[in-house]
Amino acid sequence: MLRAYIDDSVSNTGDRRLVLAALIQSEATWAAFEVDWRRALAEPPAIGYFKMAEAQNRRDQFKGFSEKERNRKVHALADIVARHAPWGFHASVSTTDYRELIEPAAPFPMRTPYFLLFYAIVFGVARMHEALSVSEPCDFIFDQHSGLDKKTLPMLNDMIATSSGSWGGQISGSVRFADDKDEVAIQASDLLAWLIRREGDGQLPPGCDGLMDKLVIYGVNRFADVDRAWLEQISAGFSEIPRANSIDKQGWREMIPIWEGGHAKALNDAVIAAGLYPPED
Predict the structure, then answer these.
(1) I need a labelling partner for 228 at 20 to 30 A (CA). Which of 17, 28, 105, 177 fits?
(2) How many C-beta neighbours within 10 Å does residue 148 have?
(3) Would you say 19 and 196 are in contact if contact means Cβ atoms under 8 Å apart?
(4) How many beta carbons lie within 10 A of that of residue 78, not counting itself?
(5) pTM exceeding the 0.70 threshold for the entire prediction
(6) What are the pLDDT digits (tens) for 2-31?
(7) In CATH, which superfamily holds the domain spanning 2-276?
(8) For the segment 125-159, what is each residue's pLDDT rounded down to a tens digit?
């Protein structure tokens, strides 16, 4: 069984792009990775967990670190990722465009750009594995976000269950959220997401030279960057779904048992037809 660990990073400049990055390896490799990662966290100067935003700003876990100490710790952790050689996939979307085009047209759980990227990651990885002739099924573990699991999982799992395509069998059906302090591979995905997002914002900060090369397997890693044209297509598709934008938070709570019971296939098919399959890379 393969596992994909996914975390996010969002820009506060430009189009305020949200990036989700996945790192994928076998369960056995991730188990060995966890031992090495926790050992590196504990090496002096020790930290309890890793978040790249804290490292970059030398706050919280990195408070009191010199730049040299910070850089040494970050590169030591990146070396561990390189040693275990996970492959990756990332997806991104402009949150500015999403709020303009999708929020007014979408049902409640889809009004967050995270939903679209959750979906893009799951099916994008499946398509990537098909292209790479990787036949082993894959679990997907996303970083825990308050309320997002209850908001998005019923619909996401239903869409997976009713998916088509030869790559559909490469999704194990296990999509869940976890705390990155329990599933430390999510911390490595945090580093990758941050690097991709900062590279998109412009030049990477000093001290980050070579980090991307340690986390990316060039020629293998894939991506799905959602552009405005694709969002316009999805928005137009939602307009064809009767009362799609009238499903509010309370209405969604009432619908959750229906989605979990698998009785919303007609609406699910309409949503898929609206263009929610991730684009070919």
Answers:
(1) 177
(2) 17
(3) yes
(4) 22
(5) yes
(6) 999 999 999 999 999 999 999 999 999 999
(7) Ribonuclease H-like superfamily/Ribonuclease H (3.30.420.10)
(8) 988 888 888 888 899 999 997 567 666 776 677 66
Q: Which residues of 80-90 are buried (b: 16+ CB within 10 A; e: fewer)?
A: bbeebebbbbb
SS3 at position 91: strand
Q: What is the rounded average pLDDT for all residues in the chain?
A: 85
Task: Give per-residue pLDDT as tens, 206-233.
Answer: 999 999 999 999 888 999 999 999 899 8
Domains of the chain: which residue ranges?
Answer: 2-276
- Beta-carbon contacts of 153 under 8 Å, excluding residues fewer than 6 positions away, are 175, 176, 177
SS (H, E, C) 16-43: CEEEEEEEEEEHHHHHHHHHHHHHHHHC
Separation in Å, CA 251 to CA 110, 132, 151, 184, 265: 13, 41, 12, 35, 18
The DSSP call for residue 44 is S
DSSP-derived pairing of the beta strands 138-143 and 17-26: unpaired
Is the link from the previous residue into 45 a cis peptide, with omega within 30 of 0? yes
Phi, then psi, of 226 in degrees rounded to 5: -75, 120
Residue listed under structure tokens 């996401």: 156
